[in-house]
């Protein structure tokens, strides 16, 4: 069993962004069964955001917890906010934007808690860097959310080093993680210093779209993934998780698939150790050119 050092103490987080698209999981009792099975597998962390399905993903999850209240104390919930979609308001300019103001973040967390039917988020992330952020004001807001008990831990998502450092400088509490896109098809953070900056600053990495939204098994990469997977005794999904977990700091994949076979494969793979040779062979196949 791989050791976990970060706040998110699991080899795999389950992403809830696509929950509302899953017709078979709309019934609260059916979704409660699905959650219970994940808990039995040792998967406790569920990744939400106020914008997923315009709030419907949180509402569906909350309805399942209400149908089976004994699950509530077992799940660990991640919430995210600051993205404002234009259709969220009846009037005004119809423009997407980020809003890290106290009024917006506080209302967003309250909304998520209400839809999920819980009193606290285990981890709350600022969803995207906001170029208009007032770091002092946002830091104060995050600390108030912690002191009020609505949020246990805080972090960021999609932040670059100077963006999280500016916010951290204004904070008494520690930012514990950064959630950003990382996969065989999105490996740039491993080559531009971002990965090293997170290790240096002690930020746990949560890797979103670890299956590249379903594009992982295409082309040469798909062939090699399946070839190596057959050798090591897991599937292509599991091998992609193993590739991520081999990176220093052991990024935790935030899996978007709700398919039970893919979840099981992902979990098995997240616990496998990959050789350096296989790691670079997969990178080369994904990039389509030789490592220089
Ligand atoms: N912080 C951020 O800005 C941010 C942004 C995006 C996402 N996220 C988080 O990350 C989570 C994961 O994102 P994601 O859903 O894009 O991740 P993903 O795990 O890379 O992709 C999952 C999608 O790929 C499909 N898929 C996987 N393997 C496939 C295959 N072999 N053939 C066809 N389809 C395949 C899945 O379909 P099935 O369901 O049928 O398996 C599912 O629709 C989200 O739920 C969310 O929590 C965060």
The ligands bound in this entry are: NADP nicotinamide-adenine-dinucleotide phosphate
Question: Quick one: biggest sheet?
Answer: 8 strands, parallel, barrel
Low-confidence stretches: none
- Looking at the overall shape, the CATH architecture of the domain at 13-181 is Alpha-Beta Barrel
Strand content: 15-25%
Number of helices: 10
Overall SS class = alpha/beta
CATH top-level class of the domain at 13-181 = Alpha Beta
| Global Rg | 19 Å
What would you call the shape?
A: globular
One letter per element, helices H and strands E, the order comes to EHEHEEEHEHEHEHEHHEHH
What name does the CATH topology of the domain at 13-181 carry? TIM Barrel
Q: Which percent bin holds the helix content?
A: 40-55%
* Strands side by side in the biggest sheet: 1-2-3-6-7-8-9-10
Overall mean pLDDT score? 95
| Alpha-carbon distance between the two ends | 34 Å
CATH superfamily of the domain at 13-181, called what? NADP-dependent oxidoreductase domain
Number of strand segments: 10
